[in-house]
Amino acid sequence: MSIDFKMGRIHFEECGSGKALVLLHGFTESLKIWDDFKDTLSKSFRLILIDLPGHGKSSVLEETHSMDLMADCVKAVLDHLNISTSVIIGHSMGGYVSLAFARKHSRMLKGLGLFHSTSLADSEESKQSRERAIEAIQKNHTRYLLSFIPELFATETKDLYQSEIQNLIDEANNMKPEAILAAQKGMRDRSSTLDVLINASFPVMFIAGQKDSRVPFENIWVQMALTETAYSLILRNVGHMGFIEAKIQCLDFLENFTHACYRLQ
Q1: Across the strands, what pairs with 92?
Q2: Helix (H) or strand (E) run with residue 183 in it
Q3: What are the pLDDT digits (tens) for 40-59?
Q4: Quick one: DSSP state of residue 34?
């Protein structure tokens, strides 16, 4: 299914019934990352999976895909489906989008999940790293993806996931270079959303990998401490890809968190 949005199309899938649960993928991914979660979660919830702009089957909309723009896409899909409240959980960049959505539409949220994600803006060092990534993408986006995606997994165990890594690379290679650039620029330019966590009237979920090279594990503790109602899952020997590296643990935790959000409110 898809909807018109800003001279383009936003693709999404819907399955199951009941209370709404929205899952958002990360950078260079698509809604396919939730394939192994879909059957279980759709038994309990009305599950909404969205391809963010430039990813999967959704259109490239602008030169820079800001987190606010992507949050507006999520809002448009929910409005189309007449969904007024939901739990939204995002992996990595999808978490940034979830936080941007929460800042704009907090009353629509029953819960928020940061799956290997953070409310902190990029440090100056991280921004410089993104600038180097932008240059690498402009030179040869295929070569960039070949080096970028394997690094998302814990170094000690990534050899176990060569098939999954190749699938992620193949999916990312379906993206237009301008789509990869637009998302990278949007992440570089995003502001801190720590205030969203501090002021959250809804539960917040944190899933963090101790071997995550992208989201420093230590930063998550500070954010959890500032959140009134926090649920956390800390994964040993896991990098940035818990939905693959610790699939069963993450699925169970995500499902239980969503049930808890709807019980509490």
Answers
A1: none
A2: helix 177-189
A3: 999 999 999 999 999 999 99
A4: G
